[in-house]
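Sequence in, structure out.
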Amino acid sequence: MGESRRKQRFGGLAQDGRLLLWRIGCVFVILATACYFTYSHGQKLLARADRAAGTVVELRHGGGDSTYRPVVSFRTVQGQPVTFVTSWGTSPPAYRKGDQVTVLYDAATPEKAEIEGFLSLWLGTLILAGLATVFALLSAILMIVAKRG
């Protein structure tokens, strides 16, 4: 394929491709940074959090979606009763009413507790890491195509 025909086929990738590469690269950097911070938050929570036994008292159905978010009650080390709704939901529900769970909480803000489990601690990190990987691969592919073109 001739040089001018190749440029027509890829829409002037040499010029337009650089801008696209920069945009994809910026998205990658943002996703990778967010991934780092969510991972770091999970690690810090595991390291400094108090643990308590909790009970799923309700499954709250999401308003606009079909997910169920567990509502959990527990008592802090000081005996303060706390009820919280998880920040995530699943369909089908991951827990049933009456299930016993381990709760992680910061004594300063027990209402921001999380269930100690894979979903609450690592799902967000894995989703961000997966998206960052996709954008890294797109950047690599564009760089290879740009070098050839």
